[in-house]
Amino acid sequence: MGLLTSQSKQRREQEMAAVSSKLKKTKLSFSDLVIPIASGILFIVLAFAVFIPMITSAFEYLDEIKETNEKIEQLEKFNKKLDSLDDNQLNEDVLTARQVIPKILLVSNFVYYLDELAKEKELKISELSSADSINGVSGPLGYTGEYLNVIAFLEDVQSVSPYMIRLENVEVSAKKDEQWGISLMVSGYYLYEDGEEPSIYAEFQPYTEYEDIVEIFKRKAESLD
Amino acid sequence: MNNTQTQNQSVAPQQSVNPTPAPVTPVPASNTQPPVSPTLAEPQKGPKTEGFNLIPAMSEEEKVKIKTKNTLNIGSILSIIALASVAIGIVSFNILSKAQLNSKKASLSRVEKTTLSKMDKIIANNAIVERAKLYIKVKQDSFSHKKIIEFFTEIATKTEGITFRSMDISEDLTFEISGTGPSFERVARLWYLFGVHENIKSINLKSVSKDEFGAVFSFEGELNITNFSNE
After folding, report:
1. Which of B144, B146, B178 is most worth mutating to test chain A (most A CB atoms within 10 A of its CB)?
2. 3-class state of residue B227 by DSSP
3. Nearest to B107 among A72, A91, A206 (CB)
4. Residues B218, B176: contact at Cβ < 8 Å?
5. Structural fold of domain A90-224
6. How many CB atoms lie within 10 A of CB A207?
7. Which fold has domain B145-227?
8. What is the pTM of this model?
């Protein structure tokens, strides 16, 4: 009976040792945390080294896509507007406009035109000079003649002239023998074109919006021919 | 996952242990060796022999510990999966964005090329528009000098004997006129007519005198552009 008790006690101790060993194995140890901690650290490192720059650049790409879409839309509208303009008509109109407001207005041409106009009205020259100014040619002008001719000259210079002309400081005064004199400052305009290609992204305005002005140019150009 | 399963399998025999001690059975006299009951370390093989089940039942604390360990292992796997998913997601997002941008840029390039092929048309259009704008700028405040001179003459004809000697018209629509009249009364009437007319904003008698031929006058004032503006 004593032997039996001793053996069973020994066996029980062995069992207890086995159970204890098993329980020890199931306890949370540092090795169990290695993977999550390593994953976390790796994630943080990757976040700063790779993820954040990649996300930032991805958002930059999205912004660029948005800008590119806007540009495409703008250019498509631009092309539509351009296509709506008739090529032949445009070429005619640009020639007309360049006649009225030329790329360059030579002083000699301008003075010659004014003097010829005065001669048509039988006016005598008293003062005539012109010089280049900003986008124009300007100078004092003086003529004498009959009152009606002086007024007609004034009208023609201002309204009928093929060039775009601005009159300033007009003075009409009576002279001897029912002659009248006219003195004024006259400016003729031109538009210098530097030949640079315009930006396709600049705001586009079709010239057809200025149809009335183009008609005026046409009338003026006809009088020049 | 395999790890989890393994854990569960290894735990199962423990959980299946009978919490109550097995009843003591009499040992046969022919067999002197006591029967060896199965342990966790030695899985039971063959038919279950009689013996004592001395493995104590697991306490609640021990069960929680095992469960915690299982959970933590799943957490490790999940953390790796999450890391991989985030990495794949971000890289994919970046690559797709870049690809989309490249595609859009290619489209833009095509449209730009089409537009640039129409550059002559653009230059011609702009040339007209710039001239039209210049024309409007120059002409917007311009007025007809002829109309003004005719207006002065018309008022003068309403007053007998008035003759103008000079008419000076400035760009700011101020004017100065001088002339002669038969008497002060006529000059005064002219002054009145100018003063009440809608085309005149203001008028002052600058000077007036009388000589052997009559009254000599000089007015200065400002015109109203409304009726004199160029079309």
Report:
1. B146
2. helix
3. A72
4. yes
5. Alpha-Beta Plaits (3.30.70)
6. 23
7. Gyrase A; domain 2 (3.30.1360)
8. 0.64
